[in-house]
Amino acid sequence: MPLLAMQSIKHEDAVLDLKNYFEIKANGRPLYTGSRFETIAGGGDQNEPNRITAEDLIAVSMLSVYVPGQAALGILGSYSEQLGKQLTRIPIDLRFEELTEGEFQKFLAEDSPADKLWNILRQHGDRWGVGQTTASKILARKRPHLIPIFDSVIAERVKIPGSGTQWTRWWSAFHEDPVQGGELVEKLKSIREAAGQPHLSLLRVLDIVLWKSGRRLGIVPDATLDDA
C-alpha cells in the first residue's frame, strides 16, 4: 500500500502540494508552521545532534503536537543521558532510502538504538503523554533522513495499522522491489527538486505529499490513534 499510495498521486499535484506547504502569508508568517520543523534553531541533526534539546521540543510543536511538562522534564533532565547515549549510536548521515538490510537491522529493528529511543520516549510503564505521533516527530527532528514521521492521516493513507510496523513497511517499500522502490526514490527526488526544497529529506517529502493528499481526500487526524 505505501507504494500504491504514492503511485496514485500525480507528479504535478505533489509538486504543487509541497510548494503550498512552504508558502508565506501576506503578513510574513508561514502558511504551515510545519514548514519550519527542520530548520528552526538550526536543525535537530545539525545543532547538538546527539542530545534532545528544548529547541527540538519547540520544533515538534510546529507539527501540531504537544510535549507535556512531565515528559519535557524527563527528556531534558533525568533521561537526557540515556537518550543521548542511543543517539550517539546512530550516524547522522544515514539515509533511509540507502539503508542495506543489515543497516536496517542494526539501527531500526527491535532492540536497535532507534527502538530504544522510541521506548524511552513512550515510557510504557509510567506514561507521560508522549504518543506514537509525538515520539516519531521527536526522532525525525534528530534524524530527519532516517526516521519516518507517523500520524493517523499517513496511517490511513497507506493502510499502516500502527507505528509498530511502520519502519519495516517503509523499508520494504523502498527496498524489497528494486524497480518500484527505485522509482519511488526518483519520484521523491524529482518532486523535491521541482518544488525547490533541496533541504528536505526524502522521508519528509513523502510525509508532506501523503499528508496533503490525505487531507484533500477528507482524512481527518485521529487523536486516539496518534496518542495510542
* Total discrete domains: 1
Q: For the CA atoms, what is the radius of gyration? A: 17 Å
Oligomer: single chain
SSE string, helices as H and strands as E: HHHHHHHHHHHHH
- Tell me the overall shape: globular
The main sheet comes to:
none
Separate helix tally = 13
Strand content: under 5%
Structural class call reads mainly alpha
User: What's the pLDDT, averaged over the residues?
Assistant: 93
Uncertain ranges: none
Question: In which range does the helix fraction lie?
Answer: 40-55%
Q: How many distinct beta strands?
A: 0
What is the first-to-last residue Cα distance?
22 Å
Give me the secondary-structure topology.
Elements: H1 2-7, H2 11-21, H3 54-61, H4 69-78, H5 80-87, H6 101-107, H7 113-122, H8 132-142, H9 152-158, H10 166-175, H11 178-195, H12 202-216, H13 223-226
Helix pairs in contact: 2-11, 2-12, 3-8, 4-5, 5-7, 7-8, 9-12, 10-11
